[in-house]
Amino acid sequence: MRPLYKIGAFGAALAASFAAAYGIGDAVSPLSPDTGGGGGHEPAAHSSPAPGGSARGDSTPAATTPGGLQVSQDGYTLDLRTPRVPAGEPAALRFVIRDADGRPVTDYRREHEKDLHLILASRDLTTYRHLHPTRAADGTWTTTATLPEPGGYRVLADFTPAAEREGLTLGADLAVSGTYTPDALPAPATTATVDGYEVTLDGTLKAGGASDLTFTVRRDGKPAALQPYLGAYGHLVALRSGDLAYLHVHPHEEAHGTAASGPEVAFSATAPSRGTYRLFLDFRTGGEVHTAAFTVRAGEPTTPTAEERPDKSHEEQAPHGH
Ligand SMILES: [Cu+2]
Questions:
Q1: For the residues of 83-119, what is the DSSP string, one character each?
Q2: Ligand 1 centroid vs 300 CA: distance in angstroms?
Q3: How far does residue 101's CA lie from ligand 1's centre (Å)?
Q4: Which end of the chain is more exposed for a tag (fewer CB within 10 A), N or C?
């Protein structure tokens, strides 16, 4: 974590992928000088086609595509070397981030204590992993994951090349072989249970504007002590149901030192559109990281989700056989 970037990280997180399109000027303005001027993800906006964007070149940030939807963006490519893995056993995942000349990127800016954050999510959003692969000298990233269910997955790499001011999130398809039985998305809920912890969500995800989301973690009805994890008391990833567009949201407050806090952790999040999102909250207690998952709707429900099942988020992290 670069101390100078502390506020910037929050601003940039607000702007991450989604927010820049909506002119969240107030959120972006506190950026520190080393990110100044750039403001959020404008470089991304400059080099990616803006849907209906005739405003290119004026002071209004152009609409930008949400993160995670493209395998190649702004000159960088996610080269997934293992596009197919088996289900139910530890599988090695290898990938390379390549620059515009096809060379592996070996220099990164650290964000939240890591050069690169890797998210794996099944298309039906029932399996989720937040991993931190290791990088070899030649730039190849490797990690191991056991994915319990066959099916289509997205691999989302969230990183900032050292040569860039702004981070980006690239996404690639991963096929997990086997007979695939897709699950329906759990119904919207404001409470999730994971590993014996009850997590409550306060706040509503707005479409196209910033909204505050506060999570409270309890165990047996008592407030839980949240330990710092990657420089914060929680990490939140939101994936849009339907295309798995990616929003990495950072908390209002960074963690300082190793002192525990809690039981609350608050975020500001901006959804790019109406729709249904799955929120994945990573938090750390007793030295272990837990993930609580919530289905939320942004904006008015346009079309009722065709099929929803009761939220069984407490089973998210456990292999569930069919
Ligand atoms: Cu991470």
A1: -EEESSSEEEEEEEEE-TTSPBP--EE-BTTBSEEEE
A2: 31
A3: 27
A4: C
Domain 72-177 sits in CATH 2.60.40.1930 = yes
Task: Kindly give the distance from the C-alpha atom of residue 200 to the centroid of ligand 1, in angstroms, as a whole number.
Answer: 22
Q: How far is the CA of 282 from the centre of ligand 1 (A)?
A: 9
Distance 117 CA to ligand 1 centre (A): 4
Cα–Cα distance, 130 to 156 (Å, whole number): 10
Q: What is the pLDDT of residues 213-242, one digit of tens each?
A: 999 999 999 999 999 998 899 999 999 999
| Structural domain boundaries in the chain | 3-47, 72-177, 185-315
Comparing C-alpha atoms, which of 277, 248, 262 is closest to residue 200? 262
Structure tokens belonging to residue 281: 């909250």
pLDDT digits (tens, 9 = 90+) for 45-65: 333 333 333 333 333 444 578
Determine the distance separating the centroid of ligand 1 and the alpha carbon of 114, expressed in angstroms. Answer: 7
Query: If you measure from the C-alpha of residue 52 to the centroid of ligand 1, how many angstroms do you get, rounded to a whole number?
Result: 33
